Amino acid sequence: MVSRQKEPYKGRLALPGGFVDEGETVEDAFRREVLEECALEVEPIDILGVYSDPRRDPRKHTLSVVFVGLILSGDEKAGDDAGGLEWIDLANLEKIRDQIAFDHAQILSDYVQWKASAGTYWSTRRRSS
Amino acid sequence: MVSRQKEPYKGRLALPGGFVDEGETVEDAFRREVLEECALEVEPIDILGVYSDPRRDPRKHTLSVVFVGLILSGDEKAGDDAGGLEWIDLANLEKIRDQIAFDHAQILSDYVQWKASAGTYWSTRRRSS
Known about the structure:
Shape of chain A: globular
Largest sheet of chain A: 2 strands, antiparallel
Structural class of chain A: alpha+beta
Oligomer: homodimer
Radius of gyration of chain A: 15 Å
Order of helices and strands of chain A: EEHEEHHH
């Protein structure tokens, strides 16, 4: 995760990401942002979800398409805009929840369930809710 | 599907949909658009995909979050903006491909595969490509 250098949530941990450029696919934006912020080449393997609650960013209404990705190559190194990188242990998610920016703790909880169910989590959850 | 009343792709068939309002989740936009265009109450059960190729709409770069939904209630009836509604037989998809607007024939092909694999299609496809 990336330590945020500016408000909102300055100093908290956030998943790498950013805005899609005009003329760019969301998959390419995912590859570009992780390369810029973490110096890692990644490939999307699934869509974890699309997060669009209007309250999720205090600045304005944004939506995030969240990918699960595989690291293809690279040694992680924070980009110029990132304060630092940190691997987190998902077993400690509840303990560090308050240090996490935006709704990214929720996204990580969803990822834990995605991982446990080998990617079929979403359809199951939605059908039963 | 909805028969388009205006350009681009005037007269062709399109999946119901539209733009997300500020302050609205993508799930609520899905429910609202299908209600407005088809008079059907639907519930999203999965995300089929996020389609963001910059060439998919000749007007400007748009992205569509495509949901698979269940019809909860209602009798289908075209809304004021829609030219008419038509159920299509997916077995005939190749034959009517030229009558379909935007990249919606591709979306329907993806849905056929989603349905055959009970929703695990995407993660499988992405891992093997």
